[in-house]
Structures are given as structure tokens and as C-alpha cells.
Amino acid sequence: MCDLKTFYYKFKITPRPYAALPAGLQHNTRHKSHKAAPGNERPFLRIDIKHSPAFARAVPASNKGDAILKEPVLRIKTLVVLLVLPAIMAAAAQAPTDMKAANQLFAQSNWAKAAQAYEQIAAQDPGNGMAWQNLGESRLQLKQYGPAARAFRHAVQLKFRLLINQVNLARVAAARGDSAAAFTQLDQVAATGQGSRVRPYILRSAEFAPLHGTPEYKQLLEKIAPCRAPQYRQFDFWVGDWEVRDPSGSRVLGSNRVTLEQDGCLIIEHWASARGGQTGTSFNYYDIRDSKWHQLYLDNSGNAGAFPAMAGNLKDNRMVLLSDEKKSPVFRWTWYVLSPGRVRQMAERSDDGEKTWRVIWDSVYVEKNAAH
Angle CA(43)–CA(61)–CA(88) in degrees, nearest 5? Predict the structure, then answer.
């Protein structure tokens, strides 16, 4: 077996191989040798395309209708692609149909036939991660634990839904009754720091039900609990049930109950003015996409634009959030601990591109338990 370039120089491209070409490409084809400079004897192919529409579209013709293919290897490879392409396209068109049929069997919980279908697909296309994953699931449902584990390992090796398929390997171990192997696999998932992404999947997997009462399982759930990284806890000092006063502490401005929700991933503010009639709610969260804290505040005025969305970070133990700095005016809100049970909240506004600021709100939060 040799590549096309070796074939060309070994056999000098005799006319015989062209007998297999389509009729439109055989027409008036002839091979001629041409003199070349000494030391650079390289035969090339001369093809008359005067009456060959296929080649007329493929290569530029000379004034006499002749085209000199100075790179015969490249042209031959092009011909091979043209000849093989229809078969490749037909195979590609068939693969999704096979996958669709297998997926239908899978959706119908027809595990035996689904496993057989995915086995064939994976054999023909070893890089198909979904086929390996679904093959593993089908084998697991059939209690064929060895083949199930092998299929899931293939998916892991392909890095296809890596966390899910690592959990799937743990499911196989648990189904076998090997809890030690299951926890070893799950601990590897926790060690990635991304275990919270598959926590719901772990919680609803029936194979882990026998493990629910064990200390190891409870420890695992704590390890993969969401929003436990330090950056998610930076604004916790604001959480509490507060009486809000003016800076002097002589006048009550309102009350604010700030709660930690959604497994610690969201801080919600519930503001009520002491004058009555005005209430507001803010949603505060840390976003891993930009590594910033965000706040969206809405009140009962019906004016959603009255309080622009803000974003920022903890700086020098102060949470500082700003509105869009490309728009004027710019608003800056700051929160920080004054002392245990006391938090200051201050708002500022800049109308000159953040050169100067003026205070538009200032308050001190006092825990209700310590307020009286």
C-alpha cells in the first residue's frame, strides 16, 4: 500500500489508471512527457479538456483548450475525493438515522435492543460519546455491570459529559454492592470542585439509595454542595433581620430582612420603608462567569429603571457595586461592617464620569435582636 505521491513517482502515472474514471473525465485524455531542466525531471500530466465539461469546471484551460496540471499529485487527490465523496456523504447521512432509531429504543426503555444498536454504532464510530454513554446506561439497566462500566469508561476517555459519566461509573459500583469503589469515584468528582453541577443527578440516582443513611454519603453531599467557595460567602455579613436607621441612629428609616436562599447561592433583600407604602426586593448573587457580584433591585413603584443593575466586588472588606460606568449618572453602593451586629449601607452618585461623588443615601443596619 502506498500513498498517491509514491504511486505517482513509482509508476509515472501511466494512462491505465484513468480507465476507471467517469466517461466525462476520460474524454481525450492522453499522457505526454515533456523535457525538463537537468536534475528536475518531473513528469506531469497533460489533459485535453476541449470537450470535457467536468475538467473545464475544475481547472483553467489554455487558449487551445489544454490544461497543464503542474501538481499532478494534488489533482489526483482531488479526483479521489470527488469519487469517494458520494460514499462518505451517504454514510454520514445514514449514521444519524441509526442513532435516531437507537435513541427511540432507549426512550422506550427497550434496553436489550438499544444496547445492541448502540454497540453497532460505537463499533462503527468509536468517537461517538453519546453512543457509549447510552450503551453504558442500557447495560446498567440490564444489570450487565461489566459491559456497562466499560462503556462509561469509553465515554470518560472521550471526555464526553465527563462529570456525568464519572458519576455513572459510581452508579455501576453501587449497583454491584461495592460502596467503597462508589465513594472513591464520587470523591474524585467532588475533588474537581464542580461536583455541585451533578449534585441533583447524584441525589436522584436510585443506585445510591442504599448509601443515603451512611456518614460517607452525608459528607459527600456537603463536599459537593453548591456555592461553598469563599467568594460566594463574601456578602454573608449583610444577611440578617435588620432595623435600618439614619447614620446618627436617632431615626428609623425602615426594616430589611436579608435572607440566604437557593442553597446559599442567592441573597434576597426584603425592604420596607418606615413611612409605609414603599417596599423593595433585591437579588444578589456571585457569577462565576465574570467573577463579580451582581444586584438587581425592584420596588413597588412599577418603574423598573429606577434602580439600574449593579455589579462589583469585595474590596478592603467592603462590598462595592456600581451601575454601568458607560452611562451617566453612575451609582455606587457600598456595604461594610461597622461592628458586630452593625452594617453601613451608603449610596453615591457621579455625574462627571466618576471624578466626584455625592451621597444620596446613608444608613446603618442594626440587628433587631440588638436594636432594643
Answer: 75
